[in-house]
Amino acid sequence: MIEKTNKNKILTILFLMFISFTILLNINITNNKQKDSTVILDRISKIKELATTKYYYSNIIAFKENKKIQDIKIPFTQKSFLIKYEGTIKAGVDIENIEILENKKEKIKIKLSKPKILNHNIDEKNIYIYDEKNSLFNKLSIKDVFNEISKEKENIEKKLIEDGFLEEASKNTKLLLENILRDLGYKNIEIVFE
Asked: Residues 36-63: what's their mean pLDDT?
């Protein structure tokens, strides 16, 4: 009798272990997503840039494309998308090539390279695709989206430069460096951009 109850207990424990193992295995199998990501180059380097101006923007791209034969649109080949995204552009100077032309008791003259756009980033968390259409004979691809965003980035940079974005970066750089140099005791400060 005692032997039978021990046998039942062991069988019950084994059965519960089997059920638990099966449940855990099924949970792991259903949630098992495969993601391969490899770091190709891992390097830390010094930043020798001084960013003094930052521009935030939001943009919408409306893209439509048809296949054509000698400027005649082929029916059922239109693909399109409407995408909204946000980005930031930073401008400033490369301070690696800073040159002190004159350094006297209360006078200093510094030469810097002209301001440039240091980086232009798209916020991946704020990309929204509102309308996306494929056709049977002309599929929409991720490459289409990236190409259009890349073209728009160039257009935005050109427009900013035309509107005086780099001149604003020059003013901000000059102001920042003048304040730092005044705090160091210089009274006659000249900053030249070349």
From this structure: 79
Phi, psi of 101 (to 5 degrees): -80, -35
Domain extent listing, the chain = 1-32, 45-193
CA–CA distance, 1 with 21 (Å, rounded to integer): 30
**Dihedral angle computed from the Cα positions of residues 73, 78, 79 and 80, in that order, rounded to the nearest 10 degrees:** 90
3-state secondary structure 12-48: HHHHHHHHHHHHHHHHHHHCCCCCCCCCCCCCCCCCC
Strands 107-112 and 188-193, sheet pairing:
parallel
Six-digit token string for 124: 């991946």
Which residue(s) pair with 61 in the sheet? 83
What does the pLDDT look like over 34-48, one tens digit per residue? 556 666 566 666 778
